[in-house]
Design brief:
The protein is of the alpha/beta class. The chain has helices at about 40-50, 95-100, 140-145, 150-160, 180-190, 205-210, 225-230, 250-255, 275-280, 295-305, 320-330; strands spanning about 1-5, 15-20, 30-40, 65-70, 85, 90, 110, 125-130, 130-135, 170, 195-200, 215, 235-240, 255-265, 285-290, 315-320, 335-340.
């Protein structure tokens, strides 16, 4: 099969389009013929090298996959050959106390497809049968690949961790990102007042279309000042952030008293400064988030099937052009998801 892989950590030039053997599945696995694979910033981090993701080289990235079941393991009776499926990117044991309690993203062996194992930058990928979920009939392969990781992340941040309620105000950083575009939609569906940021004026109407009540161009305005103006000085109840040091102070200063900041990423660095006096005097809550549960992903899939959530796809690239796709992601000149087609 054809696959895009890297044999050493580094820049986009480490990616190469090569031949690899088709994966051999076990009795509880399925082989998926990949039709589409969406990019995530995770793909960039593991290609560059990250001690949190040890891996055997060469490595095939890609956590968000949609395709057709090609083979099923001998012990599987609920997935069929020819079925259209998307892949739940989180890999867990389904035997430990956390998994059995429905908190599978807290499993001690939790990992991600395309990070701990070979992923979807390939013509075929093997996954545990529990990770192969039916694609809603109204979705294309590209749309099905564009929502899993970002929707489960956004849902977990907004509801499981932030506890966002109807009528509250939320600031979502980066509406043009995958997590941002899903979080805007989900927060609006929940009845929140939604504020969000973008980096260029052409992204403003796109964010409004998704449901944002106020869109702030962070290159022209000071976000925290605009937030205070829009909330009559009070600040927002919740901030959803996945960027890191570049926006950290802005996020904290945008919160009202008793506000909740949920963070899931560090695309601009890994270290921030924190004045504890500001945190306790304003009674702020700061929580870290990593992915979400399979149940949250199933719920997002239902909303996708009902047309209440949509996948925003900026552009697609053929698999062999994965390097150009990653360079596009690094440029930040996109809105929504970038998808490889196979």
């Amino acid at each position: 099969m054809k696959a895009v892989l890297f044999r050493g950590h580094g820049g986009p030039d480490t990616l190469s389009y090569e031949d690899l053997p088709i994966p051999t599945i076990g009795p509880e696995e399925v082989l998926v013929r990949v039709k589409a694979c969406a990019l995530n910033h995770l793909d960039i981090w593991i290609r560059q090298g990250n001690p949190a993701y040890p891996m055997t080289l060469p490595h095939v990235s890609g956590s968000d996959v949609a395709g057709i079941v090609e083979q099923v393991g001998s012990q599987i009776d609920n997935v069929t050959v020819g079925q259209r499926v998307f892949v739940s990117p989180g890999l867990s044991c389904w035997k430990c106390e956390q998994c059995l309690a429905g908190r599978d993203n807290l499993c001690r062996s939790y990992g991600l497809l395309g990070a701990m194992t070979h992923g979807g930058y390939a013509e075929y990928v093997k996954v545990p049968f529990r990770n192969a979920l039916p694609i809603p009939e109204n979705l294309s392969f590209e749309q099905a690949a564009a929502f899993p990781l970002v929707s489960v992340t956004a849902s977990h941040m907004l509801f499981a961790l932030a506890g966002l309620q109807h009528g509250e105000t939320v600031l979502i950083m980066g509406a043009g990102s995958g997590v941002g575009m899903m979080a805007v939609q989900m927060a609006k569906l929940a009845g929140a007042r939604v504020m969000t940021t973008v980096g260029s004026d052409d992204k403003i109407p796109k964010a409004v279309t998704l449901g944002a009540d106020a869109v702030i161009n962070h290159t022209r305005e000071k976000v925290a000042e605009r937030v205070k103006l829009l909330t009559e000085g009070r600040g927002v109840d919740v901030v959803i952030e996945h960027i890191g040091p570049e926006v950290w102070d802005t996020c904290l200063h945008s919160l009202g008293k008793g506000g909740r900041l949920i963070t899931c990423g560090a695309t601009t660095g890994t270290e921030v400064k924190l004045d504890l006096r500001y945190v306790y005097s304003r009674q702020l809550t700061i929580k870290g988030s990593y992915m979400g549960t399979r149940a949250e992903l199933v719920k997002a899939s239902e909303l996708m099937g009902q047309g209440r959530l949509i996948s925003v796809i900026d552009r697609t690239y053929p698999l062999k052009d994965a390097r150009a796709a990653q360079e596009q992601m690094i440029s930040r000149k996109f809105f929504g998801k970038i998808v490889l087609t196979v």
